[in-house]
Amino acid sequence: MPANPLTAAGLATPWQLTGTNGATPAASGCNMANAANLGAFVQATILDPATGALQVYEPLVITQGTTPAATPVTPTLPAGAIVTIDVGFNGTDLTQVGATPTALQQGNCVDGLNGSIFGQVSFCNGTAFFQAAFQAEAQGKLVVPSAGVSPKTGQACPTTRNFNTIDQDPSDNVTTDYLLTANGQTAQFNAANTAALAGAMDIVNGSDNKLLAAFLDPTLGCTPFEAPDLSQAGTMFSSQALNELSAAKSQAAPIALIPENDEMVLVNNAFSVAKTNLYRSEVGQPPISGMANGPDTPAGFCQNMINVQTPFLNTNQALLATDTSPVPAVGNNLFTFLANRLSMSFTNLNCQNFGLKNSVTVTLDGNGVATAATFNTTPQTANTATVGAPPPPGQRRGHGRHTLMNPSGE
Predict the structure, then answer these.
(1) SS3 per-residue string spanning the chain
(2) Could you give the CA distance from residue 339 to residue 344 in angstroms, rounded to a whole number?
(3) For residue range 183-228, what is the model confidence (pLDDT) as tens digits?
(4) pTM exceeds 0.90, yes or no
(5) CB 325 within 8 A of CB 409
(6) What distance in Å separates the CA atoms of residue 179 and residue 204, rounded to the nearest whole number?
(7) Handedness of CA 34, 35, 38, 42 (dihedral sign)
């Protein structure tokens, strides 16, 4: 991560991807030419506290030892700009390292709690950004549009906190696109670079946020929250932070907040209130409520995921099947992808520990791709006696996470 990452110069300085413990990008596989499996992506959202105006910018990630395929755009930031940076990864664990001894502190950056990293994601200055954004809303400077109602379902449009469409680790990863050239160099995704770098391919981060903005919203006739993108000459674009602001504005109860049984917030396979609250604060979510069987408890999250998402998918399967699959290896269209993802999320969150049963029966072809699904829509009630129980030892999901969400189809 470059020095002074929240400044215009820092945003325009490429981040560098490399292997752990001194391993080279080539030896570790951690290079942007291998983006579908081990690529990293960075996204900034910028608030002008004086006016409430929002902007987006995608800092570039390059493979260490290479140079950008095109010089990154240097953004012009408003006076007093408050910037948050979100980092996503298509592998399992990504650790922040500063280019200078003070870079992490300069950016107010975190990748976990006391050495227990979140895994795929990390953040810079998220807590301060959302505090300022919510204050700007309260002052009437920032007006976040309503997520609206789907003209195709008659239901509220989805957000990152909607149990209709969340998975086992909601509110993670970014909507960033980069261009990748044949020789392994990367460039920011914009019209000028696309024209200049003939043959460069679009690479993306496997992301709940990309799923929302690029698949669910268009299919349901909804519009994602967007702002001018400074790395795309002001073209309107989404971001992880914009999605969270939209969810905070529009999502009605029950609200899907980061649960303690999300693998990213476990510490040594045990629940951690502190780590969960740290993650929540970086994406603008309130801390754990402490309600004995609230929707943000592990049991409550599992119960609502099953009881809310199952009938939604069952009712809207014909509509959802009209769109392509974000990950063809998981499902052969958007509907079968979401159904298989729900089934896997039930398992990954150990929802059976709370006396619940998987409500999805998935039909797989010879390659393990979901081609059909049926549902048991009978409402279920979690066993409140096990609300605080951690998952059994050894339940960490390892490298399976990104296969659920990678919209590149890789």
Answers:
(1) CCCCCCCHHHHCCCEEECCCCCCCHHHHCCCHHHHHHHCEEEEEEEECCCCCCEEEECCCEEECCCCCCCCCCCCCCCCCCEEEEEEEECCCCCCCCCCCCCHHHHCCEECEECCEECCCCEEECHHHHHHHHHHHHHCCCCCCCCCCECCCCCCECCCCCECCCCCCCCCCCCCCEEEECCCCCEEECCHHHHHHCCCCEEEECCCHHHHHHHHHHHHHCCCCCCEEEHHHCCEEECCHHHHHHHHHHHCCCCECCCCCCCHHHCECCECCHHHHHHHHHHCCCCCCCCCCCCCCCHHHHHHHHHHHHHHHHHHCHHHHCCCCCCCCCCECCHHHHHHHHHHHHHHHCCHHHHCCCCCEEEEECCCCCEEEEEECCCCCCCCHHHCCCCCCCCCCCHHHHHHHCCCCCC
(2) 9
(3) 999 999 999 999 999 999 999 999 999 999 999 999 999 999 999 9
(4) yes
(5) yes
(6) 9
(7) positive
Mean pLDDT computed over every residue of the chain: 93
C-alpha to C-alpha distance for 247 and 256, rounded to whole angstroms: 10
For residue range 6-17, list pLDDT tens digits in order: 999 999 999 999
pLDDT digits (tens, 9 = 90+) for 58-94: 999 999 999 999 999 999 999 999 999 999 999 999 9
Per-residue pLDDT for 386 more than 70? no
Residues of the chain with pLDDT > 90, as a percent, come to 90
